[in-house]
Amino acid sequence: MTRTELIGLFEKTATEIAERDIKGLTELTEISTLGIDSLGILELVGEMEKQLGVQLPDDQLVGLTKIGDLLDLVEKRRQLAS
Amino acid sequence: VSEGNITIGRRSIYRVRVGYVDTDQAQVVHHSTYFRWLEQARVELLREGGLEYRSWEAATRLGLPLVDATIRYVQPCRFDDIVIVETHIGALARTALRFDSKLTIEGREGTVVTEAQIRLACVHLETGPRRVPEEVLRACAGDDYASKLVRHAQTKLTLHG
User: Fold this and answer.
1) Other Cβ atoms closer than 10 A to B99
2) Global pTM?
3) Residue A28, CA distances (Å) to A31, A58, A61, B134 in order
4) pLDDT score of B2 more than 50
5) Fewest CB atoms within 10 Å of the CB: A17, A30, A31, B96?
6) From the list B96, B121, B130, which residue is nearest A58 (CB)?
């Protein structure tokens, strides 16, 4: 899955959790601007894990501010798993 | 049984006798007192499920802060009453737990005097939000907790007056 496809998956999942359309995101989009609270973000991460078959440890989510940071973590964990 | 008001796992009973300190100038239990009892009832429910909160918190540096609460005061409790706090898990998610409680007075168990729903999240005490760890989910709902998990939105408070 490419980075663009990952952003698409992120948008789709965020839309489900926020129950409103979320689109036009980029790697530089700040996660805090999505209007999803911290528990919603954790759920979003859990849904991404299910879709991608990776585990993203909670302690490695601390300090992620941009969507690109999350994608970096996803790719790192996928590489570790493969 | 309706969605959002399901009973997950066992019911836990916590009994407390109303102290003079728990009451207010109107000689009934002060509204804030109920939150202390509800908190202790949650601690006891977890203990009965095999999780001793103090040692868990010390070992993991995790905590379960309250993020939402709704409470309905129906009838007053008074000094020296024995209050029975019956609590169960109303909803269980990876991100939050909802505890539902009904309070009655010993000897008048058929009358609910107060009911409440409390939603807790999980945080690391230094670094912030975490998903609820397995040992807590297991203490709440048993070994087959995974089959009882709902989405975060389904843990919302549903108590209506």
Assistant:
1) 25
2) 0.89
3) 9, 21, 16, 33
4) no
5) A30
6) B130
